[in-house]
TrEMBL record:
Main location: cytoplasm
Protein name: Fructose-1,6-bisphosphatase, cytosolic
Species this protein is from: Eruca vesicaria subsp. sativa
EC number: 3.1.3.11
Signal peptide per UniProt: none
GO BP, sorted A to Z: fructose 1,6-bisphosphate metabolic process; photosynthesis; sucrose metabolic process
GO CC annotation terms, alphabetical: cytoplasm
Lineage: Eukaryota, Viridiplantae, Streptophyta, Embryophyta, Tracheophyta
Amino acid sequence: MDHEADAYRTDLMTITRFVLNEQSKYPDSRGDFTILLSNIVLGCKFVCSAVNKAGLAKLIGLAGETNIQGEEQKKLDVLSNDVFVKAFVSSGRTSVLVSEEDEEATFVESSQRGKYCVVFDPLDGSSNIDCGVSIGTIFGIYTMNHNNEPTTEDVLKPGNEMVAAGYCMYGSSCMLVLSSGTGVHGFTLDPSLGEFILTHPDIKIPTKGNIYSVNEGNAQNWDGPTTKYVERCKYPKDGSPAKSLRYVGSMVADVHRTLLYGGIFLYPADKKSPNGKLRVLYEVFPMAFLMEQAGGQAFTGKKRALDLVPEKIHERSPIFLGSYDDVEEIKALYATEEKN
Ligand code: AFP
């Protein structure tokens, strides 16, 4: 009998236990982050269950405009947003919420306020829902550094001021990947226990990868450095093998694969979208935070992504993120262009 393996199987490191362990390293900590995180976990479990049922609901006629009681059915992304907003507000640990689904920021009323601000995309990649492809929730967390009325200025801060970030991927398994500034850790939902269990401790991205991930349908509108970079992925000049192309079209899935296998994910600027497509606060920053924590890099075409200072809550930015050496290469191409 393999006692060591048995001990491993019976000594489960749940996400709550993991965060409590981390918390115990800070004697002044009052458990606010643990409480906030347990509400994120609740939202993720809810969305996971709803996503799993989405196909079935459609099949048996529960989804659509109205349900059998004649009530309007909410779309999954709207429903997910409602769940997360309510979980954050009721946690009593948040003051400002910015969601991809809501045009304006939500300011929590004073009786329920707490020290955190959360920026999030409750269901990213929602155009993939109907075909059962992986989608996800992305979040980033800031702390309030004053006791005055909260404003949008509390979240219009560079990504390097985030205290934590993560995503939950609803795919063949449900996985929550989190960093609170001490490495990146992955937890997989055990559906029979209803608990996220630590399965990927201290994720490090390979220094170089052999996959590039981009929507090549936009190639005719790319700028010089992006065009040159993708050309090099396909026809390397140094005799190395060409990179493989993988593109899901769900940022969480594409970034998750990049984190585990290495390589680069690009959503560049193009002539039609000079600022790219992805949103700074709840797509670019959280993923850039995770990449750097895992030993990779994230670059906008001009600067380190986490050094951007957003001026609007739904601002967009081009993004190149992934393995350290692969991002170095694209940085060099932009540096050369700037000189010429
Ligand atoms: P949707 O939520 O509209 O599906 O957009 C997903 C997304 O914001 C991000 O998850 C993808 O990386 C990116 O857009 C894909 O964009 P393209 O369809 O333009 O490639």
